[in-house]
C-alpha cells in the first residue's frame, strides 16, 4: 500500500509504503518509534528502537502502531514532533490520516523533513473519541 500522509508548503509530503506491518518512506528508511518515543524514519532504525514493525491502517484510515491510533504532536520551537506518548504540556493527542495514492493531503496528514522526521500540525483529537482500531 502506498499512501501520502502529510503536507505543508514548508515540507514535502510524507509518502510511505506499508507492507507486512513495516513502514518505509520514499527514501527506503524504516518508520519506527525511537527510544525517546518519537515517531521517525531512519535507515536503519536507531539502536534501542521500541517499535520497528506492527504498523497498520484502521478502518477509518488512521495510522496505528499495534491497536493504538493515538499519537501526540509536541511543539518544538516552530514545528511539531510526533510521539506515541505525551512528552510534555505542549503535546496534544492527534490521529494521523492515511490517504490513498495520489490523494491530496489534509490537515490530519503529516509532512516529512529532509532528515526523515515526520511532523506537521494536526487537528487536536476530540474528547470522547475512542481509539479507532
What order do the helices and strands come in, and which of them pair?
Elements: E1 2-4, E2 12-13, E3 15-19, E4 22-25, E5 30-33, E6 39-42, E7 55-57, E8 63-65, E9 71-76, E10 79-83, E11 91-94, E12 99-100, E13 111-112, E14 118-119
Antiparallel strand pairs: 1-3, 1-12, 2-13, 3-4, 4-5, 5-6, 7-8, 9-10, 9-11, 13-14
Describe this structure in words.
With 133 residues, the protein is mainly β. The chain is 0% helix and 37% strand. The strands form 4 sheets. It has a 6-stranded antiparallel sheet, with no helix packed on it. Strands 2-13-14 form a 3-stranded antiparallel sheet, with no helix packed on it. Strands 10-9-11 form a 3-stranded antiparallel sheet, with no helix packed on it.
The helix content, as a percent range, equals under 10%
Net shape: globular
Distance between the termini: 18 Å
What is the typical, i.e. mean, pLDDT? 78
Class by helix and strand content?
mainly beta
SSE ordering: EEEEEEEEEEEEEE
Oligomer: single chain
